[in-house]
Design goal:
CATH class: Alpha Beta
Oligomer: single chain
Shape: globular
Largest sheet: 6 strands, mixed
Radius of gyration: 13 Å
Strand order of the largest sheet: 2-1-6-5-4-3
Length: 109
C-alpha cells in the first residue's frame, strides 16, 4: 500500500490522502472512535509525531469488493517503534471510490 511508503517517509499529509477528507470518516481504535478527517490527522500527529513516525509494514492484504464503489480490506500491520518494540495487529478498512480509493472507516485496534 502506497500509504505505508508515505508513512515511512514521515509525510503525514501524504499518508492522510488515503483517507476521505470528510467529517464522516471514522477511525476506530481499541480505546475510542474518532470522527472526521481533521481529528484523525490530529490523532496520528499526537501519537506518532510528524516526520519521526515508526516504521510501518503491511502484510496479508485481502480485498473484498462491495460493488463498484466500495471495498473492504483486511490486513496485518506491523510497527517498528523507536523504543525497539514491535507492536502488530489486524486492521479493517472500508474504502470508497470517488476520484480514487479513500478510507471512510478504519478499524485498527
Amino acid at each position: 500500500m502506497r500509504s505505508a511508503q508515505y508513512w515511512n517517509h514521515g509525510d503525514l499529509d501524504a499518508f492522510m490522502r488515503s483517507y476521505e477528507n470528510a467529517p464522516t470518516t471514522v477511525y476506530v481504535s481499541s480505546k475510542r472512535v474518532i470522527h472526521g478527517y481533521a481529528n484523525i490527522r490530529a490523532h496520528y500527529a499526537e501519537h506518532y509525531g510528524v516526520g519521526t513516525m515508526p516504521v510501518l509494514s503491511i502484510s496479508d492484504i485481502a480485498v473484498r469488493p462491495l460493488g463498484e464503489r466500495y471495498a473492504v480490506v483486511v490486513a496485518h500491520w506491523h510497527l517498528a517503534m523507536h523504543d525497539g518494540t514491535h507492536p502488530t495487529g489486524i486492521f479493517t478498512l472500508v474504502l470508497h471510490r470517488t476520484d480514487g480509493w479513500h478510507i471512510i472507516t478504519d478499524h485498527s485496534p
